[in-house]
Specification:
By secondary structure, the chain is an alpha/beta fold. It is built from 14 helices and 18 strands.
Length: 465
């Protein structure tokens, strides 16, 4: 084994989180302790995402073993990528624990615990190959703390991060002053057949523009536009529609700030198939999306129905099993839906009878679905809302977005400051991945809502607590 390469010892949670992790260390070698294999075996049963990942890890290891059936397991297995897996090429090897780790008085731990057995294994490897750098990789911060206390090198798993820092995430909105017109003096303008004003500017060296990026030029009464076409030499944008006036209300909802107005532009654009809205509590993500969905489903007949789903992760203790059908089981998780529907379905006249008639109509057009039954489905001409998307892993996000069929629009809502899923962080959330990976696609749009509009109490609490 070349001394310049590292030996990475993987914790169970790394493989549970990313089943391809063993192939992501390039030229370095990977080591799997026996206790990790035992924990993987214990977690293989079930239909959860973790169980599926565990079974995939076992299949990968099985394929590697089959390729070197006559080889010496002590010399490791060549980490050749399985068919269909596209990862950077590497030349490392996969090693397994073939002997029991000896207890060592240097470690201030109880060797009976699984995490501590990994630490003993790490120390044994250091003693067997003192010239080599042996590093523990774990998503469990407590295990990393114990490793550091015992002077053992430990790292978080970084290959699942979309960004190094959340501040680098695409916000979807660029605000420029009046100097924009001097910087992009080479400009042409025209009106489309529908009367929309368009502009085309020659790109400058080093600028960055993305399809469906929101653009604000000037002060409070400046120009608001949506970038639509981006080429190597130029970019084109059209004026955004104004949804602040009563005559432009969307199902009775008006935009209260610039971000909300841009959000409605993206949600109502028939050329955009995928929209992501991020923002803190009370910024109007769900209300704006439902209003846009109802307008396009009931008024414009663009979609046949609205489908809403979310990750069922509890904030507090579980309340136990829920009775009823799939939709009835999901109802307690859909408080945001019912609360916003009350705002949208309050009739100006007609009283309780008109409200009940409206609710009956919406019950036939808005369906609540569970994430557990999404595999294998295809949604045709649907307006799909994925709420609390920050609690989804990148793999779950891929599973949902690949359900879209012709004529379907997907909308992801979330706040990465409120992640409840274990081992997910702001930079590894499926919502963060979606925003980062789709920013260059011509048929997607994103906007981060910043100002709370729920109430002055909610806005102040969000900023100070």
């Amino acid at each position: 084994m070349p001394p310049q390469t590292r030996l990475y010892v993987l914790d169970t949670n790394v493989l549970m989180h990313d089943p391809t992790a063993i192939f992501r260390f390039e030229e370095h070698d990977v080591f799997i302790p026996m206790v990790v294999l035992e924990e993987l075996d214990a977690a293989k049963k079930g239909l959860s995402e973790v169980a599926r990942n565990v079974r995939q890890v076992s299949r990968f290891i099985g394929q590697l073993l089959a390729r070197e059936a006559d080889g010496d397991i002590a010399n490791g297995l060549s980490l050749q990528q399985p068919d269909g897996l596209e990862l950077p090429a590497g030349s490392g090897r996969l090693f397994f624990q073939t002997q029991v780790a000896e207890s060592n008085g240097r470690l201030n731990t109880n060797g009976a615990l699984a995490d501590n057995q990994i630490l003993y294994t790490l120390l044994d490897l250091q003693q067997q190959a003192p010239e080599r750098e042996v590093v523990l990789v774990s998503k469990d911060i407590n295990l990393r703390i114990k490793a550091v206390i015992n002077r053992l090198p430990a790292e978080d798993y970084h290959n699942d991060k979309a960004l190094d820092d959340l501040d680098l995430l695409y916000h979807g909105l660029v605000e420029r002053g009046e100097e924009f017109w001097q910087e992009y003096a080479e400009m042409e303008s025209w009106s489309s057949e529908s009367g929309e004003a368009w502009y085309r500017c020659k790109r400058r060296s080093g600028d960055h523009w993305y399809p469906n990026q929101c653009l604000k030029i000037g002060g409070a009464n400046g120009l608001e536009a949506i970038v639509k076409e981006v080429t190597e030499d130029s970019f084109s944008f059209r004026l955004a529609h104004d949804f602040r006036g009563d005559h432009h209300a969307v199902w009775g909802i008006l935009a209260r700030n610039i971000q909300q107005n841009f959000a409605l532009n993206l949600l109502l654009d028939p050329d955009i198939d995928f929209v992501t809205l991020m923002g803190t509590a009370g910024t109007g993500k769900t209300l704006l999306t439902l209003a846009a969905g109802l307008a396009q489903t009931l008024d414009h007949k663009r979609f046949s129905e609205i489908i809403m789903t979310r990750a069922t992760v509890s904030v507090g203790d579980e309340i136990g099993y829920l009775p009823g059908t799939e939709e009835e089981k999901m109802t307690p998780w859909m408080g945001a839906l019912t609360d916003n529907l009350e705002v949208l379905t309050t009739p100006n006249e007609g009283g309780d009878w008109a409200r009940q008639a409206t609710n009956d109509l919406l019950a036939n057009r808005i369906k609540i679905r569970s994430l557990n039954f999404m595999r294998g489905r295809t949604f045709l001409n649907r307006f799909v809302i994925i709420d609390e998307a920050q609690n989804l892993t990148p793999k779950q996000m891929k599973t949902l977005l690949t359900r879209a069929g012709p004529g379907t629009k997907m909308v992801c809502l979330g706040n990465v400051e409120q992640i409840d899923t274990p081992y997910l962080t702001e930079t590894t959330s499926g919502l963060t991945f979606a925003v980062d990976r789709f920013q260059d696609w011509d048929f997607s749009g994103h906007i981060t809502l910043q100002r709370g509009e729920r109430s002055r109490l909610a806005d102040f609490a969000s900023s100070v607590l």
